[in-house]
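[scheduler] slot 2 assigned
[scheduler] job type: sequence-to-structure, two independent chains
[scheduler] chain ordering preserved from manifest
[runner] begin chain α
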Amino acid sequence: MVPRKFEYFAPTTVKAATTLLKKYGPDAKILAGGMSLLPVMKLRLGSPAYIVDINRIPGLEYVKQSGSNILIGALTRHHDIQTSKLIKEKAMILSDCAGLIGDAQVRNMGTMGGSLSHCDPSGDWGAAVLAMRGVVKLRGPSKDRTMKIDDFLVDTFTSALKPNELLTEISIPIPSARSGGAYVKLERKTGDFATVAVGVQLTLDAKGTCSYAGIGLTALGNKNLRATRAEAALLGKPLTSNVVEEAAEAASEDAEPTNDPLRGSAEYKKEMAKVYTRRGLQLAISRAKGGKQ
């Protein structure tokens, strides 16, 4: 199928883009990588009257360090995050996550900002950024604002973006020494959306006690979820096998899956949430202790 007719704009500045969004409101949609928007339009599940293509705006595609944070431009492609030396050295969970998104075409075209803005509960970035306690930068016609990722992810396909705003940057705190992260994913076949996925980020103190824990869940609720009970089960404790198992069980309790004829029952997904949280924790602990990436 082909999309219904629409009017196309290709602004070259963020201000011009947000001005168009302000003018056309909910009838306008941003085109970044197009990996979600274009299939929806072709199937006519959505038919925006106006498309604002932001790919000609310079300065929105980067991965760089600024003080104690990694800054990622909204137009940065998944592949560039996956292969970034800075990401691999400072935030391996993000490289893991990028490498598990779709296929090569999706990773080369899809953008981190577009994926987060789409707020698909089966999208991968939300869980990874939750685990890292990231912050997003939003720009409107007259001002910028920042927001914790927990507040940005509102509901299924619903973010905190206003109709006239554009997500421009993701800020990720750089983990301290003795930190490790991992993103692990169960999928029916390579390139599929997640049946279950888990992002884990940990920091150990000098005695091996967990001083930081971040766990995000994919495809286990109406949006990417923070596994708060699982995080609490880890903090202040040495990460023994018993503690890891307790946290994995807690993550299963944090999950809020639904029955799915393609990807399994809610009961099955809860069990897989436990399995993949355990795997993610084991890999993150190994990395935090200097094990092989």
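[runner] end chain α
[runner] begin chain β
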Amino acid sequence: MFRDRLDAARQLADRLTIYRGKHPLILAIPRGAVPMGKLIASQLEGELDVVLVRKLRAPYEPEVAIGSVDESGWTYLSDYAQIDGGNAAYLKAEKQRQLDIIGRRRAQYTPIRPAISPDGRLVIVVDDGLATGATMIAALHGLRASKPAKLICAVPVAPADTLAVVTELADEVVCLEVPPFFQAVGQFYQHFDQVDDDEVIEILKKS
């Protein structure tokens, strides 16, 4: 059980100290992981930015991810997407909805500069936890195409089956806890408050 996201971020930073001073690029998945990314970037003397990905929601259970999409439009679909009602027409519309949100967030989050290029960089992708892993899968896939020198996934908690999938996509995975019984990321935090766009914008502006 973590007190909050910053507690989890401190513990992750401790596990990543080998990369301190190597100018890592810390890419946080908005919104919850951005305060975590700020702390980790500070501890490792790195650079902070966001990687913009969105989950594709199940038609009748919007909290359930049946896939994800990255900023380029590349789409990942889970094996059970169609079982959960994700037919072709729904997925096309849902993908466009999420791409529209990604576009708005890019305009909000980094209005005066482009995204920082991961090309040739030591890249650490941070999230506050993995459930299905859909958004992390999209993030790692998209970043791999940008040819980072090393691609690391860093999360406080994830179920074993999700971790196995993500491990295939990263050069290294750092996960603090792999609990045998997993329902949702929030169950492993005492405080799991929402992070809003204003907080993300302020953190990125100062970074």
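[runner] end chain β
[qc] chain β: The chain has two domains: 5-53+117-206, 55-108.
[scheduler] slot 2 released
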